[in-house]
Amino acid sequence: MTERELTAAILAALGSRPDCRVWRQNTGVAVYGHRAVRFGVHGQADISGIFADGRRIELEVKRPGERTTPEQDRWGAMIVKFGGVYAVVRSVEEAVAAVENAR
């Protein structure tokens, strides 16, 4: 399963939960004519969201064996420092468990 497919599966699994809302966060560069426009924040998690109680959740999706970058580690530390939930997940089950554990 590709990271894109895994991200879609996680979004589908968490999308019907009444206790949180999640969405995909893209980063990259788009070229418009001769102009490049960067979007997103370098290091931000693949999935972002919010719990019904107002806490932010960030899920970094990785395929088995992949590691996070230093920028992703700093992003996760910042989210946790400000009271949010951050997890690196490698399966739908890990993503659901991260949400359950945060409740």
Summarize the structure in short.
The protein has about 100 residues and is of the alpha+beta class. It has helices spanning about 5-15, 70-80, 90-100; strands at about 20-25, 30, 35-40, 45-50, 55-60, 85-90.
Relevant terms:
single chain; 103 residues; alpha+beta; two-stranded antiparallel sheet; 3 helices; 30% strand
Polypeptide structure, described:
This protein has helices at residues 3-15, 70-81, 92-102; strands spanning 20-24, 28-32, 35-39, 47-51, 56-61, 85-89. With 103 residues, the protein is of the alpha+beta class. It has a single domain (3-102), classed as Trna Endonuclease, Chain: A, domain 1, CATH 3.40.1350. Helix 1 packs across helix 3. The mean pLDDT is 94.
Layout of strands and helices, then pairs:
Layout: H1 3-15, E1 20-24, E2 28-32, E3 35-39, E4 47-51, E5 56-61, H2 70-81, E6 85-89, H3 92-102
Parallel strand pairs: 5-6
Antiparallel strand pairs: 1-4, 2-3, 4-5
Helix pairs in contact: 1-3
Report the C-alpha radius of gyration, rounded. 14 Å
Q: Assign a percent range to the helix content.
A: 25-40%
Number of helices: 3
Rounded mean pLDDT score:
94
Distance between the termini: 28 Å
Instruction: Flag low-confidence runs.
Output: none
By CATH reckoning, the class would read Alpha Beta
- Please state roughly what percent of the residues sit in beta strands, choosing from under 5%, 5-15%, 15-25%, 25-35%, 35-45% or over 45%: 25-35%
CATH-derived topology: Trna Endonuclease, Chain: A, domain 1
CATH architecture level-2 label: 3-Layer(aba) Sandwich
Q: What would you call the shape?
A: globular
- How many individual domains? 1
Main β-sheet: number of strands, strand sense, barrel status?
A: 4 strands, mixed
Strand line-up of the largest beta sheet: 1-4-5-6
Structural class category? alpha+beta
What is the string of SSEs from the N terminus onward?
HEEEEEHEH
